[in-house]
Structures are given as structure tokens and as C-alpha cells.
Here is the input.
Amino acid sequence: MSTNNKSRILYILKILYEYTDEENTISITEIIEMLEKHGIVAHRRTIMTDIESIEESGVDVITIKSTQNRYFIGNRDFELAEVKLLIDAVESSKLITQKKSTELIRKLTTLVSKHQASELHGHVYVDQRIKPENEEIYYTVDAIHSAINNNKQIEFKYYQYTGRKEKIFKNNGFVYSLSPYALIWSEDHYYTIGYCDKHGKISKFRVDRMANTVITEKETLHKPVDFDVAEYAKSVFEMFDGETKTVELKCTNDLMDVIVDRFGENVRTHELGSNCFKAIVDISISPTFYGWVFGFGGKMSILAPVDVKNEMIGMASKILI
Here is the structure.
């Protein structure tokens, strides 16, 4: 039987973290019994001294005074509700494979007591969201992070789907060279943005469609000193890539929430009578933008510029053919 002081304190700390919380406390007698299962012998007074040492080290051990004191871990790095939110995010993410989701959820439940973990398992529901199958994405993300931190370029191939739903490499397996600036999460997908040699400009690539990603010895190129990741994401990811123009939109009053949510509270607006308003916004012009306007069923229309208005009319005529 062992009486090693260091191992005993570590086991006591492990017992407190794994088996106690506000609803599940533990006595010194129970701690002694659990230690004996690990071949560790200890007396009551020794355990009390160990718990005091654990408290002095900064661990929030709560003592419930009684004829036989009971103990539990109070504040943890993560509260139960926070762990539940993280688990929901993992389970619903399209980025993470089902296998990896299960693994991450198991790790997250170790942040709370075993009793709380059993409650979490009872409330985790798989909602049949589409999950990726390619586990290479984790290594790709790691490579991109490393390249950004070390100002290095990366090379990779890029997937696309054919009309027969076959996954093939784009441009016959062309190897893209990218100077990555950042990783951005947008609409359930991870993207890397940076200067692309092939395109000759700042471009974005979906991480889950990148393959054979390697870090090169080449230094990062063409990173603008004043490059604003947030502004780029706002213009490109919200309306997709295209020429940015100032557009005037006529909207019914019930769309003000939509406009504020999309463009922020500082968006320029003017009243147009009692039922409508005009919003003046900077937007990347693309089919995605026109589709967004179409989606409001006539409650939103383009007032200016004329070329953007005419292009939307032309797209509408194609749909009706």
C-alpha cells in the first residue's frame, strides 16, 4: 500500500473534479475508500490537510460543515451551461466529422463531473445535419495556422463536384499557391483567405475542399498593410465575390430588421413615404446578391445604379424563359 504524498494529493484532486459538484458532494470517508481502490492508504486528518493544500493552490473546494464534512468543486473553468453550448456547436458543425464530433464531445464532458456528464449525454441529440467525411480537414487547418504564424505560403489541390456528383480535383489537379492571411468561419464552413498566385488577387478557398496541403519555404506575398479581414469578410462572404458598388434599395418598413442585421446599425437609410424606406449600402454585385433581393418577394427592389437595376431585370427574364 502506498502513502506517497504527491500521488495521494493528485488522486484526491482527481476524485473531487470527477465525482463532485453542487448536487453531488463527498465525505472524507468516501475519499478514503476511493483511495484504497488505488492502493493508497491515508488517515482522516491527512486527507483534511491535503484538501486544505488543494484549496491554497487556487482550486475552489467548497466545504459543507456538518458532523461529517462534505466537499465539492465549486467554480470550474467551464460551467455546465457553457459545456452544453460547446457540445451543441460541435454536434451541429458541418466542419467536423461525426467521428471527430463524438471524440470532441467525450473530451468536453470531462470538463464537468461524471454526474453532470451523464446529464449532458442524455440531452445531446443528433439532428441529422450533413457531416463531412474527410478527416484531412484537421491537418489542413493546422497547416494553415502554422503557415500564417510563420509567414509562409501553402500549396494544395482543390476539389469540385461534377454534374454526376463525382468529386474531382479542379483544373485537372492544378496545385494552387496561396499566401494565407486568415481563417474565417462563415455560414457553417471554414475558409482561408489570402493572395492566390493563379488568380492574381486576394481569394478565398473552402478548407474542407482543399487536399494535399503543404507548407512551403516561400515567404508570404502581397499582404496589404491595411488589409482588414473583417471588412473583407463582410463584403465577400455576405454577398459573395464581385465588384463592389454603392446600391440604393427600396424596402418595405418590415425589412428594417433585415437591413440592420445585414449591414449594421450605422447603415444609411431614408424614409420613402409612410410604408417604405431607402437603404444605401456597399455590396459586392453577384448573382447571389440578386437572389437575395428576389427572396423578399417584391418587398425589396433596386433603385440605383441603373446598370445594377437593369442586370437584375435581365436575370429575372432568364428565369421566366
